[in-house]
Amino acid sequence: MKFQPTAILNNGLEMPLLGLGVYDMYNKEAEQAVEWALETGYRLIDTASMYENELQIGNAIRTSSIPREEIFLTTKVNDKDQGYDATLKAFDQSLELLQTDYVDLYLVHWPLKATRKETWNALEKIYETGRAKAIGVANYLEPFLEELQTYSEIVPAVNQVEFSPFLYLENLKLKCEKLGITLQSYTPLVRGLKMHDERLLNLAKKYEKTPAQIILRWNIQHGVSTIPKSSNLLRIKENFDVFDFAISDEDMMIINAFNENFRVVDDPMLML
Ligand SMILES: NC(=O)c1ccc[n+]([C@@H]2O[C@H](COP(=O)([O-])OP(=O)(O)OC[C@H]3O[C@@H](n4cnc5c(N)ncnc54)[C@H](OP(=O)(O)O)[C@@H]3O)[C@@H](O)[C@H]2O)c1
Fold it and tell me: Is 23 known to be catalytic?
């Protein structure tokens, strides 16, 4: 198996820094993508109840030759299932669809104002049972983390947020580091919208890599876990081929300065 860097979460659990995101893929396509990813060497798969493909992800993992304990599996509670009892029920449903008796990471998908507290309390309960090896949040910008601190007993292991060179959330990254929360970037490839950025193309040429590989490597060198989505075999392989080069400190700073607060997903601040 190819070497890949990992993060040690605040409870000691080891998580690969690079994983496959499986949003917007369904049925056979989703199953096939996970099969290809596992064959390529990916050991982190990021799904969600909302993606309606937990069954297919479970199929691919179950039928692969890789032992379940070597795969880091994340899923998330759907907005419609938030609240204490509903979350507990939704978690059971996710395990059933995923055909596993535990997930490695269970996340609050969105910080819904009315229910995020009870939802977090339910995640803490689930964590106590051992059926989620770690729990965390998604879309928690600084004010949400501060609020969470007022009622949580467990510090989230992971905060999964939209993050890319074009949305470089440096303060959030520093805050997570201070709190012992591992930052994970979603939509790292900006859904392909920035692949023709001239500066990115120049760096790709310089390092003899693709724009996607430059972005993913930038995440990894920041110590940020990242979960690019692809259901195309060549791009699944391309996105994993980022462990044989390093971006210089100077170029890392140049990429940091690409920031233009560019989002493709709703701003979580709307939930405050
Ligand atoms: N927690 C949350 O609220 C949240 C929100 C959004 C996403 N996520 C997670 O983050 C994952 C990634 O985000 P995302 O799927 O929204 O967007 P993304 O990973 O930034 O971009 C995916 C798009 O880029 C294309 N692509 C993949 N590799 C490429 C490459 N090497 N070169 C050019 N284009 C490439 C894909 O097409 P092909 O498939 O055809 O390759 C797809 O259209 C999701 O799958 C999901 O797991 C979480």
Answer: no
Structure tokens at 65: 């030759």
- Residue 2's pLDDT is 64
Nearest CA to ligand 1 atom 15: 229
Q: Is 222 annotated as a binding residue?
A: no
pLDDT per residue as tens digits for the range 195-204: 999 999 999 9
| pLDDT score recorded for residue 1 | 57
Domain segments of the chain as ranges: 6-192+224-230
Residues in Cβ contact with 205 at an 8 Å cutoff, skipping those fewer than 6 apart: none
Residues of the chain scoring pLDDT < 50: none
158 neighbors 134 (Cβ within 8 angstroms) = yes
- For the purposes of burial, counting CB atoms within 10 Å of the CB of 20, is it exposed (0-12), middle (13-18) or buried (19 or more)? buried
195: how many CB neighbours lie within 10 A of its CB?
15
Superfamily (CATH H level) for 6-192+224-230: NADP-dependent oxidoreductase domain (3.20.20.100)
| Measured torsion, CA atoms of residues 94, 97, 100, 103, in degrees rounded to the nearest 10 | -30
Residues having CB within 6 Å of any atom of ligand 1: 21-23, 46, 109, 138-139, 160, 186-192, 195, 210, 212, 227-232, 235, 238-239, 265
Which atom belonging to ligand 1 lies closest to the Cα atom of 239? Answer: 31
The answer to whether the beta carbons of residues 45 and 34 sit under 8 Å apart is yes
Tell me what pLDDT residue 272 has. Answer: 87
Beta bridge partners of 167: 164
Q: How far apart are CA 131 and CA 258, in angstroms?
A: 40
